[in-house]
Amino acid sequence: xxxxxxxxxxxxxxxxxxxxxxxxxxxxxxxxxxxxxxxxxxxxxxxxxxxxxxxxxxxxxxxxxxxxxxxxxxxxxxxxxxxxxxxxxxxxxxxxxxxxxxxxxxxxxxxxxxxxxxxxxxxxxxxxxxxxxxxxxxxxxxxxxxxxxxxxxxxxxxxxxxxxxxxxxxxxxxxxxxxxxxxxxxxxxxxxxxxxxxxxxxxxxxxxxxxxxxxxxxxxxxxxxxxxxxxxxxxxxxxxxxxxxxxxxxxxxxxxxxxxxxxxxxxxxxxxxxxxxxxxxxxxxxxxxxxxxxxxxxxxxxxxxxxxxxxx
Length: 312
Description:
It is a single chain. This protein is mainly alpha-helical. 47% of the residues lie in helices and 4% in strands.
């Protein structure tokens, strides 16, 4: 009997140590909740004192509310309005302090100065309300005082041009208003004579013209990077295009690379034009291009001025 008990219920020293540790751990788990329960019961003995403190606090709040209710409301002084001073003025180059005298905000003045910095000019009083920050009310109250200085013709010795301190050519206002340039022949210096066109836009126009092979319509200026409708409206009456100077691509002999170099012809369309020509022979007319699967009428109208079936 002893041997049987020893076989199934005897423990080694290591196992006894483990049992002791486990027993201590279980005892702690049993004691901890009861210790916290005793602590909570001890705190309950002071409940009446806590209730008294809460009643005292509520009474203090009621007293403060009644005191505030008996006070007269404090009047907040109104911010004084900025006094506007009206006088006749030329908006071209007007000083910031004078714009403030006219009652314009810092934001409005900043936009006017940015417009001037980009080469913008006010030629007539209606141009003033084209500034985005100028609303109808501001224009209505200031229109009667706008007095744009008369532009004098340039001296005969230097017709329409002068030089700044860096030696760069500067066009006079009179010449800007009488220019009529061919977009397909004007160089970057001549393009700078147009209103709102500085060196950056002049070089962009020339680069884009070279990639196209020439402009066939003045509206293509809107395809120049950064060119907006306001700038276009300022130059559209002073430019034209001679379509006879447009360089055309012969679709019956041009390879993929030549076609792809045009900004209006994607690499997929260039490949399709070449493959269609290989399968069906030379194009008899430009309308044959409409038989290409990926060619639609919008793309066709855009590229057809730059294509020809002739190899001349």
